[in-house]
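Hi team,

As requested, here is the filled-out complex form for the NDP run. I kept the field names the same as last time so the parser does not choke. Let me know if anything looks off before we queue the next batch.

— J.
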Amino acid sequence: MAKVIDGKAIAAKIRTEISAGVQELKQKGITPGLAVVLVGEDPASRVYVSMKEKACHEAGIFSDEYKLSADTSEADLLALVDKLNNDPKIHGILVQLPLPPQIDTEKVLEAISPLKDADGFHPYNVGRLSVGKPLFQPCTPYGVMIMLQEEGVDLNGKEVVVIGRSNIVGKPVAMMCLAQNATVTVCHSRTRDLADVVRRADVVIAAVGRPEMVKGDWIKEGAVVIDVGVNRVGEKKLVGDVDYAAASERASAITPVPGGVGPMTITMLLYNTLESARRTA
Ligand code: NDP
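And here is what came back:
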């Protein structure tokens, strides 16, 4: 049976380190600050934003929240981003996605200063990652890399198969694995013989958004499986992109859903904010 990679425990360890880092900076007169901007009433976004606020509070990070109405204009949002870009108390800015249709998301993400881009979505930071000189790294893939590191998984020369090529998970995690000398294959909806590609992998990273799509017999004996997917089935149950029970029979280590990658995302947001504040110091 596979070892269960405990995301909650790894996140708790990293958060303790972050809290210590925050205290150290505070002694030098700097309080790391994160601005979180929410536009509209999307229930999932509201939950994420309140989780982020709570996490900041627990880590001693100053959090500044802006809850704007769903009919906010693009110009007003851009003006707020500009104000936050110039606010010395703020070291990280996060605009919660999705934005309402009257607002051009790309325009807003590009208006955030690359030096305060806590989500790492600005093309400048995407470019820095792809040339191997990262500044801000996107939180979920960054969390995946920390989990692998904490589990002692050395990617050097390994076959990594990433399923999914989104800008927020698949592509950046592939870049990060490449930077650690893995041989990386990125799969997507047009990939032929996906099962056969996945069977080659020493490490499988699934970020698709399809419940239990990755079957147990796709997993090579002893592979490490990281399941980024979060899929709601029925009223309450959450499952990943991997058939956990079957994959556990073959993998050497696997992340559960929930309790795997999920807790790492906000942790890395706190980490990015702390690192940004350290840079200004
Ligand atoms: P996207 O919908 O943006 O991307 C999904 C990717 O999966 C696309 O590249 C798509 O291919 C690919 N795909 C879809 N169907 C198939 C298929 N049948 N075979 C192979 N590839 C396929 O999703 P995200 O990257 O935003 O998120 C992925 C999952 O991760 C979701 O479940 C999401 O909820 C979860 N997530 C979890 C987070 C966490 O904190 N734990 C954070 C972010 C996401 P194509 O490009 O060809 O369309």
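Two things worth flagging: The mean pLDDT is 97. The two ends are 47 Å apart (CA to CA).

Thanks,
J.
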